[in-house]
Every structure is written in C-alpha cells, then in structure tokens.
Design goal:
By secondary structure, this protein is α+β, with helices and mostly antiparallel strands. The chain has a 6-stranded mixed beta sheet with strand order 2-1-5-4-3-6. Strand 1, helix 1 and strand 2 form a beta-alpha-beta unit. The chain starts with 5 loop residues before the first strand and ends with a strand. The relative contact order is 0.27.
C-alpha cells in the first residue's frame, strides 16, 4: 500500500444502507474500502482527529465522499440498469455526503490484521 489515503467503512452502516435501499446483496467492496470494521459508533457526530488500529497511528482526513463510481460498480456487479445508492446516501446525510466511512492517512508504516481494535485519540 502506498502513502495515499486509506478508506475505512463500517459493516453496521452497510447493513443500514442495505435495508434502506432494499438491497439484500449490497457488497461493501463497491465502495472500494481498504479496511472494513464492524461499526463507526465510536465516532458519534464528528470523526476524531486521530485514531490507532492495531497500535498504528492514523490521521483522520475526512468523512467518506462518494462519486458516481459507486453506482456504476453497483449496476455492473448486480446487472441492474440503475442504482439509487448515491441519492439514498445523500438523503441520509445532513451535509450531503454519506457518513459510513472515513479516509485515513497513516502516520507510519503499518501492518494491521483481522481482529485489531480501533482506539480513538
């Protein structure tokens, strides 16, 4: 992995999105995450400035922003003609961007694995 932003998404928020869009087979991989965690409930209303995963430090850059690639990948993966993901995500968000993920910048070389915990600073 290079030193570019890392995309972290939440499975609990993906479950909520599946329910709201009536999409039982929505794969989180269409959002192109690098890291998938159980939930983002530790963030409450605003993302923290820093966090650690498995003891490695990351700066939180911003909430997830979405582009049309999500709808394109969703249509392609599920062989459908249209996708309501982006409008649904925008409708759910008070700031017109979804809040199911964040972008992180590593502060050091890192190696994380399944089962590592997230710690907020």
């Amino acid at each position: 992995m290079d030193s570019g932003p890392i995309h972290l998404v939440s499975l609990s928020d993906m479950d909520r999105l599946r329910e709201l869009c009536d999409l039982p087979n929505l794969d989180p991989m269409i959002f192109r995450p690098n890291i998938v965690i159980d939930n983002l409930s530790f963030m409450e209303n605003e993302p923290p400035k820093k966090l650690a995963i498995g003891g490695y430090n990351f700066t939180v850059l911003e909430r997830t922003e979405r582009c049309n690639a999500v709808s394109i990948l969703h249509r392609k993966q599920h062989n459908i003609k249209s996708s309501y993901l982006i409008p649904t995500l925008n409708e759910l968000s008070e700031i017109n961007t979804p809040y199911f993920g964040i972008y992180l910048q590593p502060e050091e070389n890192f190696s994380i694995k399944t089962g590592d915990y997230v710690k907020i600073y």
